[in-house]
Write a structure and sequence with these properties.
single chain; alpha/beta; Quinone Oxidoreductase, Chain A, domain 1; Rossmann fold; 2 domains; six-stranded parallel sheet; globular
Length: 323
């Protein structure tokens, strides 16, 4: 099968190479998928640069989410048949014609949903559910503040929060992105590059939950606008990892600061999360309420171009590789 390997450096033009590898064999409880589309995510860029190694037992091939068809169910797999259209969260291995998946981490692709769109769902959907709805406990009528609102995770967070009946304040960089966030359903959309950003953020009202992909550079403003009893969830540190917070304010306002990663979670935890998403959030996908916009698609052999475009930061939504 054809795969993308990391060879020859850290930059996308030199590091990513098309190669041939044997088709893997699914073990007990696993499924071999014929991959037709694979999502491209920021952790892929970090792994390419040597900064985010795959967890033990995961393939060294990039790719954390795919969509395609069941090719071979492994021993003990029930509920899935050859030819079923599915999407899945992976520990790695998505940039390839075939991928082995824990059958417990499969989700059925709804009729009429293109596999390109389905491939853009698992990583963002699972991340948002785990962080906004489980750790953040976002409820109907509350307010979610999401930074990086036009990223793959950001656009999904907007749509999922609105589907759950929450109010959304979105921040992003530039007028085109703020307009895109409004079009996706945000109630308030702020341009972080504008003068007076802090005053506008304060005027937008307090947030019950903050989904933070920025990190240290936004720590002071996040704590300032977080409501009493609010939950601040950190999932990336693109603008610094060492922050100063006011512990007295944390105590007086009963604020909760937490964070997580998804890829490093144990297989049983990912299976639990899949079951929760399928039971409680997948209906939003089936109904069309959650549909991450696709910025661009690239054939597998042009993975380096997808990385270059993602690194540029001008995108809205997801980049997807097609096979």
């Amino acid at each position: 099968m054809q795969v993308i390997e990391i060879k020859g450096g850290r930059g996308p033009a030199t590091a990513l190479r098309l190669a041939e590898r044997p088709i893997p064999t699914p073990g007990p409880g696993e499924v071999l998928l014929r991959v037709q589309a694979a999502g491209v995510n920021r952790p892929d860029l970090l792994q390419r640069e040597g900064l985010y190694p795959p967890p033990p037992g995961a393939p060294d091939i990039l790719g954390l989410e795919v969509a395609g068809e069941v090719a071979v169910p492994g021993d003990g797999v029930t509920g899935w048949q050859v030819g079923d259209r599915v999407c899945a969260l992976l520990g790695g291995g998505g940039y390839a014609e075939y991928a082995v998946v824990d059958a417990r981490c499969l989700l059925p692709v709804p009729d009429g949903l293109e596999l390109v769109t389905a491939a853009a769902l698992p990583e963002a959907l699972f991340t948002v559910w785990a962080n906004v709805f489980e750790a953040g406990r976002l409820a109907a009528g509350e307010t979610l503040l999401v930074h990086g609102a036009t990223s793959g995770i950001g656009v999904t967070a907007i749509q999922m929060a609105k589907a759950a009946g929450a109010r959304v304040i979105a921040t992003s960089r530039g007028l085109a992105k703020t307009a895109a966030a409004l079009a996706l359903g945000a109630d308030v959309s702020l341009d972080a590059t504008e003068g007076g950003f802090d005053a506008q953020l304060d005027a937008a009202g307090s947030a019950d939950v903050i989904l933070d992909m920025v990190g240290a550079a936004y720590a002071e403003r996040n704590q300032r606008v977080l409501a009493p009893g609010g939950r601040w969830v950190v999932i990336a540190t693109q603008a610094g990892r060492a922050a100063t917070i006011d512990l007295m304010q944390l105590m007086l306002k009963r604020q909760v600061l937490t964070g997580s990663t998804l890829r490093s979670r144990a297989a049983d935890e990912k299976a639990r999360l899949t079951a929760e998403v399928r039971a409680r959030a997948w209906a939003w996908v089936v109904s069309g309420q959650v549909r991450p916009p696709i910025e661009a698609t690239y054939p597998l052999e042009q993975a380096q171009d997808a990385h270059i475009r993602l690194e540029a930061g001008a995108h809205v939504g997801k980049m997807v590789l097609t096979l």
